[in-house]
Amino acid sequence: MRSHETKTVRGFWLFRWFTETPKDRMAAAIDRTLQLADSGALRVPEGQPILVENFSEAVYLAEAPAHGGKPLLVFEP
Questions:
Q1: Is the model's pLDDT at 69 over the cut of 70?
Q2: Which residues does 21 contact at the CB level (< 8 Å), separation at least 6?
Q3: Which of 2, 3, 8, 29 lies 20 to 30 Å (CA to CA) from residue 19?
Q4: Quick check: 68 and 48 in contact, CB under 8 A?
């Protein structure tokens, strides 16, 4: 027989977290996230670079049900 764990996912407002979290705690959370990604425990999906001039395409892809990688805006000098 297989045992199943109960998982909880809780969202948060990132801007509020950045403004209310002490810098040392923020750095520790970012370091831990990078450790999890490096170890393979946390999978970071590939992004899809899109020039900022094609912003509307990025919005379209972000809203599409199966858009593949997350659109990443690229700002070229």
A1: yes
A2: 29
A3: 8
A4: yes
Q: Are 72 and 54 in contact (CB under 8 A)?
A: no
- For residue 3, CA distances in Å to 6, 23, 42 come to 10, 39, 22
What is the pTM for the complete model shown? 0.50
Distance CA 26, CA 45 (A): 22
Distance of CA 2 to the CA centre of its chain: 31
In 1-77, the DSSP E strands lie at 47-51, 70-74
Please tell me the distance from the alpha carbon of residue 44 to that of residue 22, in angstroms, as a whole number: 25
Q: What is the DSSP string of 26-74?
A: HHHHHHHHHHHHHHTSS--PPEEEEEGGGHHHHHHHHHSTT--SEEEEE
Instruction: Please report, as a single letter, which amino acid is at residue 36.
Output: L
Instruction: Kindly tell me if the per-residue pLDDT of 72 is higher than 90.
Output: no
**Tokens (6 digits) for 32:** 């831990």
